[in-house]
Design goal:
17 helices; 8-stranded parallel β-sheet; 8 strands
């Protein structure tokens, strides 16, 4: 049995961190669903930038939309919504079979709104309404300004994928925002079943300290931070506050492991997948990592509910001079900046391609 199937059977959802028009048209995504247990997908500006820049698959749509006067962010969101609603329809049967737990796709608001609460809420509502799919998440960053936007979006009934979380503290802030949004819905007599995941980025921790800590600590920081966060997740699920919400029909916000492609060429290509196996969680991974996992044939032990050796390992990093709180803040800030750069690159790519296609007639 493939390791992908083993993880699925253990209760972890495997999502693809990629989408292209070719993947949809060729039936490749359908095959991943049928053969590799993929039950959802995530996207980001970088993924769309590469898909548009490195193919002609979007040329006809770009030519048609620019001729109608659409450009910039408007053009991108029209293209992205075409792909993601098609993907959402593909996963719709999984969404229905799991009563809304699985079968999701994700679309990100403009990364330039990461520090603008009101504009993020407005954009989330608009994009969710335009998509008109019950299984499409709107990605909102878990920045200080993003946290209240998460609460407002959930209260408004917009499913949210919280992105750019790096630490336990980042996760807890996002999770509490989700809980507050659900509690407000209950108080207002609204349906408390609004889907959400909290996406914790893993591999960037190890990339940030590569060559700066003893060799014995290489490729251990991301996993240790994940274990610490997983304990907080399990504690929340067991809390009286959350159990009261379950009584009235709420569904828990699942923890999602993101940035799980291995960046260190000396480490296993499935390091972050095998190390982060856990029921009632999600792992979204690049195609390269997914195919490597399917080829490897086995999985590791499930994550311990109590975080296992996380604190012991993190103490070693602290002793090695790593300020974990400061690094978490740096990673979130740098991640937000990198998303903005990807967004600018994407819009520049669309502008250049639109001009090229117009000149070609």
């Amino acid at each position: 049995m493939k390791a992908t199937q083993l993880l699925h059977d253990a209760g972890q959802s495997l999502w693809l961190d990629n989408i292209t028009r070719a993947l949809l048209a060729s039936g490749g995504l359908r095959r991943y669903l049928d053969e590799l247990s993929i039950t959802g997908l995530t996207s980001n500006p970088t993924i769309f930038d590469h898909a548009i820049k490195n193919s002609h698959d979007y040329d006809a749509a770009i030519r048609e939309k620019t001729a109608a006067g659409t450009s910039g962010e408007g053009l991108f969101f029209e293209l992205a919504l075409e792909d993601l609603t098609r993907a959402a329809d593909l996963f719709r049967s999984i969404h229905q079979a799991t009563n809304g737990v699985d079968g999701w796709v994700s679309l990100e608001v403009s990364p330039k709104l990461a520090y603008d609460t009101a504009s993020t809420v407005a954009a989330a509502k608009e994009l969710s309404a335009r998509a008109a799919r019950p299984n499409l998440f709107i990605k909102i960053p878990g920045t200080r300004e993003g946290v209240p936007a998460i609460e407002e979006a959930i209260f408004a009934g917009v499913p949210v994928n919280v992105t750019l979380l790096f630490s336990r503290e980042h996760y807890v802030a996002a999770a509490q925002a989700y809980v507050r949004g659900i509690e407000r819905r209950v108080a207002a007599g609204l349906n408390p079943h609004v889907g959400s995941v909290a996406s914790v980025f893993i591999s960037r921790w190890d990339a940030a300290v590569a060559g700066k800590v003893p060799a014995a600590l290489q490729a251990q920081l991301g996993i240790a931070m994940a274990k610490r966060t997983y304990k907080a997740y399990r504690d929340l699920l067991a809390s009286d506050r959350w159990l009261r919400l379950l009584n009235v029909g709420a569904r828990s916000q699942r923890l999602l492991w993101a940035s799980t492609g291995t960046k260190d060429p000396k480490a296993s290509d499935v390091l972050y997948v095998k190390s982060l196996a856990a029921p009632h969680s999600v792992n979204t991974m690049p195609e390269k990592t997914l195919l490597a996992l399917a080829d490897h044939g086995e999985i590791g032990a499930m994550l311990p509910h109590d975080g296992g050796d996380a604190e012991e390992v993190l103490d070693r990093f602290t002793q090695a001079g790593v300020d974990l709180d400061a690094l978490a803040a740096d990673l979130q800030r740098d991640g937000a900046a990198a998303f903005v750069k990807s967004w600018d690159d994407l819009l520049a790519c669309l502008l250049e391609k639109s001009a090229t296609l117009k000149r070609a007639g």
